[in-house]
Amino acid sequence: MPEKICIVDDNMINRRLLTGILRNEAYELVEARDGQEAIDVISKELPDLVLLDVMMPKKDGFQVCEELQRNDRTARIPVIFISARTRVEDKIKGLNAGGADYVIKPFDAGEVLARVKTQLNIARLTKELLKANEELTRRQRRMDEDLAVAARIQQSLLPQLSPDMENTAIAWRFMPCESIGGDIFNVLRLDETHWAAYMLDVSGHGLPSALVTVSVSQMLHPATGILLKKTRTSCPGYAVRRPAEVLDLLDQEYPMERFDKYFTVTYLIMNVKEGIIQYSNAAHPPPILLRRDGTLELLEEGGCVIGLGGVLPFQEGSKKIGQGDKLLIYTDGILEYEDKQGQFYGQNRLHDTLLQLRGRSIKGIVDGVIEAVMDFGDHHPPRDDVTLLGIGFNGEFN
Amino acid sequence: MEIDQEAINHVEVLYLKGRLDAVSAKQLKEKVASLGQEKGPKLVIDMAGVDFIDSSGLGALISSLRTVSKLGGDIKISGLQHQARSIFELTRLDRVFRIYDDSMAAAKSF
After folding, report:
1. Per residue in A274-290, pLDDT tens?
2. If phi over 0 gives left and psi between -120 and 50 gives alpha, with beta otherwise, what is residue A357?
3. Which of A183, A353, B20, B68 could form a disulfide with A387 if both were Cys (CB 3.0 to 4.6 A apart)?
4. What angle is formed at CA A316 by the lines to CA A313 and CA A319, rounded to 5 degrees?
5. What's the CATH code of the domain at B104?
6. How many independent structural domains does chain B possess?
7. Residue-range definition of the domain harbouring residue B62
8. For residue B67, is pLDDT > 90?
């Protein structure tokens, strides 16, 4: 489609001159003879460029230009003033009124043509840019919608309701720093005596890390046979796989090269009849056992991150738990939450907070810790995923 | 991130400067890959100029070590600042990498 140019001048000879210059360039030309007609023609024809005389009956060129600016439909049409007024103040006035350029009469044909082409070029590029921007905005919206769906899928992998675990209560907070995160955890029933809990933190953030969390959480589903292994020798025909064995299997299954990701994980088995926790910790921040009497013990045994192919063996630890003890499992997003000065929240503050909160219920502790952490950094959005899981042991054990 | 390079006794020493995070991780991996063509590459990564490392940065060091190990070589680390050192300890990578106070000591250990 040829580009359309509107020539506005009250002098017929000037209009003829300009038409003559532009005719050979395959532009579509429309004309107006005064300021009011200019407004009418431009609003109707929506040209790609306006050549605008300044001194005209009814409305002068400056007024026309300002009026075009005020109308959304015509505001982006470039205007080149063509005027006999040669004073610098007039040029400034024209450019201030929204003019794109200012040519002085008598004009040179080559100059007019060159300036017309430049303005049309700018207008075309601007139009393309706006269109590309719109397209980008549209795609961004689409991506945000997809991410929101992905986030809901990831959330669905977390415990849905407080699991009906004997003598215990659990509470958690899951705060990805983007809409989806590289942290995941779950609490699973293995059999009538044993429950498993895990938390993992995949390196990096966002979608790639989140997809790895989905893969691992599927892997750690009781149905896959990772957590419970079949045995033929004795009743009940299966055995609960020890934490270090589970980590070994994950280490084999997720070598760093597979997704260019590694992860830290804490895996523990709770014997809810006897009150014994067995655990192993693959470079995850050590879970904290908050004893009823206010002492803190860390679950530190374990090994290096998952993904290194068995460079170090995973060590196991165990803890006897009693009524009123609480276990807190978390990711390093809590420890590395920064205040304005760039100081980390850190382990010491976390321990102090836990001691202050120790009289509360497990939900009260989890909420209280998150509140204390966010207060520390003036509630600015975390730079890493923040996850906290609390398990309160309320009943008596054998 | 800036990476300077120096050879000490046929050991290549990379001096890193800046943040070792998701942005610079790729740069380091590519640098190590470009060095590790021959058999048994000997590398020191000096982190005295690294004031921040995150999980992606750690990932770059780990995958570099795995690349070099496969060729029969080794990577040693020197000059860890406080934040990086505590991350190495927390993730137990201080037991996977040999860590030295400075690049000279690391290079001599080969």
Report:
1. 999 999 999 999 999 99
2. alpha
3. A183
4. 165
5. 3.30.750.24
6. 1
7. 2-108
8. no
